[in-house]
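Saturday, quiet lab. Running sequence design on the structure tokens for the scaffold JK sent over.
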């Protein structure tokens, strides 16, 4: 190896290899974040379409087609009304899962459009019962005022969802990452500097850099100067389990 080369950072490999080789006896959880060079996912006013270009969108759909379930928080449904299906590549639709602790989302939404794909709503156990035809409500207890990311993963695993994509948004990915529940983080970096606005990650504060996560990373050019950085969080010191 050339002197000075970081053994944890390479430019070869297959970003879907870890999906295929994951231990079938436990959940495999991947998160994705499409972000600017300065780590933003939206402007101050919330404009986020489209930071990333077609190559990153294609990659997002490839991830969706490679997992059993795609999970987003209520904030993303309210902001973007995503379909959460696979359209840009060939492959099956994953189950669609929305975290809506108080069952605040009402009315029609694209993720609810029936296409034979299972849909699930994760709420706190004392949330108002709100029956949406075709949607399974998964009720979980609060832990320190939040739904436990581990309990959510376990509930999905118990329903046959072994490979799980935490698609967003910022709060949802950050809580799963803080809880040590993410195996891989796919950062999709677009060649744009926003300079202010929403950060992609907002983790619990750390006191010194010894406590920072330092995942092994692999870089993949995606085209149109977009880059995928595949972060192996199981190799990272610090906050993972
Ligand atoms: N760039 C990307 O890759 C990407 C991907 C997806 C979304 N986005 C953007 O992200 C923004 C939305 O992100 P966001 O951070 O505002 O919202 P979010 O993460 O989509 O949703 C957050 C909400 O989900 C619920 N939630 C998530 N985890 C929870 C937990 N552990 N316990 C209890 N409740 C939990 C809470 O709902 P309540 O509020 O009801 O308590 C929470 O406020 C949008 O602008 C969207 O465009 C970007």
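Result came back. Writing it out in full:
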């Amino acid at each position: 190896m050339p002197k000075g080369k970081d053994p944890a950072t390479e430019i070869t490999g297959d970003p879907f290899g870890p999906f295929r080789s994951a231990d079938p006896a436990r959940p495999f959880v991947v998160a994705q974040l499409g972000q600017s060079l300065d780590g933003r996912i939206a402007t101050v006013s919330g404009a986020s379409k489209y930071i990333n270009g077609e190559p990153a969108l294609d990659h997002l759909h490839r991830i969706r087609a490679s997992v059993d379930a795609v999970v987003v928080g209520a904030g993303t449904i309210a902001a973007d009304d995503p379909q959460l299906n696979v359209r840009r590549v060939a492959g099956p639709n994953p189950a669609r899962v929305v975290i809506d602790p108080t069952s605040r989302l009402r009315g029609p939404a694209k993720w609810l459009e029936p296409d034979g794909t299972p849909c699930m709503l994760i709420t706190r156990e004392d949330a108002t019962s709100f029956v949406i035809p075709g949607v399974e409500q998964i009720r979980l207890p609060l832990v320190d005022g939040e739904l436990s990311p581990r309990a959510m993963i376990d509930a999905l695993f118990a329903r046959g969802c072994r490979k799980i994509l935490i698609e967003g948004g910022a709060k949802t990915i950050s809580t799963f990452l803080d809880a040590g529940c993410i195996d891989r983080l796919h950062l999709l970096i677009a060649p744009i500097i926003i300079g202010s606005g929403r950060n992609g990650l907002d983790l619990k504060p750390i006191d010194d850099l010894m406590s920072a996560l330092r995942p092994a990373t692999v870089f993949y050019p995606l085209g149109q100067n977009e880059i995928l950085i595949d972060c192996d969080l199981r190799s990272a010191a610090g906050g993972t389990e």
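Notes for JK: The chain has one domain: 9-205+212-235. The radius of gyration is 18 Å. Ask whether to fix the surface positions before the next round.
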